Amino acid sequence: MTARIVVLASGSGTLFQSLIDAPQRSQDFEITGFVTDQPSAPALERAARAGIPVAVIALSDFETRDVWNSALSDAIATYEPDFVVSAGFMRVIGEPALTRFAGRIINTHPALLPAFPGAHAVRDALAAGATVTGSTVHYVDEGVDTGPVILQEAVEILVADDETSLHERIKIVERRLLVQAVTELAHEIGKS
Questions:
Q1: How far apart are CA 158 and CA 27, in angstroms?
Q2: Residue 109's domain is classified under what CATH number?
Q3: Which residue among 109, 120, 167, 187 is the active-site one?
């Protein structure tokens, strides 16, 4: 059985592209939909080139965050996913999606969680004087970057690193770990 995944992203979509390009995808998983909160996200072009259906659920189009949360959950459900991949989605996923897809939402984060959660992990690691950071793929729960870890890999912080150079090196690891995690989860689904 091929696992059905929905990818969420807000920006350029390089993590999304790593899943599109994954050689295992044709056997292990199918990207059935792409959801973004940004009407002009460059990731939309990636979805179009790959022939992946899209939904744009912009927060500004909804009266309240609760209404947006419901619309996001419904948009994801439209694509009937076995699991959901938050790949650079810069919004906290809330109810009802957390309940509807409980234990089936994964996220990437540019740090070795539980260290440096939140939107500025790379900057925070540098400011703290850390010598090592990395990338984490984890399950999404009601907290911010607090769900159980699936995979992690360390990235050394070099003396010459600034936020941009360090983040670029972390992204290389993050893309590989995301494909590995999705492939492993797809195998588990295929066995059930």
A1: 38
A2: 3.40.50.170
A3: 109
